[in-house]
Structures are given as C-alpha cells and as structure tokens.
Amino acid sequence: MNKNIAVTGKGDARHVKKFCDFRDLVVLRFDSVNVRVVYLNGDPWFVAKDVCAALELTNSRTALQMLDDDEKGVNLTYTPGGNQNMSIISESGFYKLIARSRKATTQGTFAHRFSNWVFRNVIPGIRKTGAYGIPWGALQDFSRRKEQYQISASEKGRALQACKRKKRELEEEEKRLIREYQPEFYFGERIQ
C-alpha cells in the first residue's frame, strides 16, 4: 500500500503533484474538533472540511471560493478504504477564513473560541517551538492503544463482576451449609 499523499492545485502546487509521507500529517485538536494539517515542503496545508467545521461554516465549497487560487488545492490520500480527495487550504487561506468568518467574531460561539485558540495558543506555540499539534502517527498509535485498553478493561471488568458473583454465591453456600450442618455456629458464635 502506498502511504503517500498527492496534492494538486494552483499557486504553490503549480498543477504538479507533490508527495509527502503520512508522518507529515499533524492533528490540531480543539474541544471536539480535529483539524488535520499536512506539511508540504515544510508549509502547512489544512483540510478545508475540518477548518470549516471549526468555524461553523456549513458549506466548505462556498468558503473555498472566497480564497485565491494559490490558497487552495486538492489532497489525494491513499487509505486502506481507497483513495480520497480532500480540499486543502494554505496557511494564509486558513488565517483568511478565520478573519472573514462572521461567527469567529461573534462572542460566545464555538468559532469565536476556536479563532481565539488559534491566535492565542497555536500561533504563539508555533513561533516559540516551531510546531503545534499531535503528529498523526502518534495520534493513531495512541488511539489504537486506547481502544485496546478499553477492550481489555471491559473484558477484565466482566471477569471481575463474574468473580464477585462467584464470591457471593460461595458466601451464600457457606452460610447455607453452616445453617444446615452446624446451626449452632450460624451467627459466628457457638449457641449454648
């Protein structure tokens, strides 16, 4: 299976396919929204659908029309389920969408909180450390391990419940046997 991502588009892509490895994919996580970012030649390109979800924009195609041609492209991702085309936007397109979003300027909205997070946390973090976000491989590995843990915990939880039931059954059987064969010891004392 080919684990490369091909990106085509205008502007930086110059109608030429570019390839990068899945290790170049990073996820920015804000509350319940994941924004996938792929790095092409060291530059971040954001999955348009994810950005639009974070900005509470219902139509990503309309949002993309507001951007210049060099700020958008198409991402062809090879996955086990088949090839998937995803619209992507450049870093400048990402900031432009945030700046132009009405919801991002309306206090109390999710989009407003998201834009504050980008401008208050993500950008300063990138400036200070050179990166921000969870590398895709690390997130995938974590998700896989978490799922395995949950399966194991469920199995162990069921086994523990079965052990507790068995213990109660044995305690009840012990009481029944004492009552039946040694009633004088039933309450833990010898009855005179």
From TrEMBL:
Residue ranges of the TM segments: none
Keywords: Coiled coil
Domain Bro-N: 13-130
SMART domains reported for this sequence: Bro-N (SM01040)
Coiled coil region boundaries: 153-180
PANTHER family: BRO FAMILY PROTEIN, DNA-BINDING PROTEIN-RELATED-RELATED
Protein name according to UniProt: Antirepressor protein
Organism: Escherichia coli
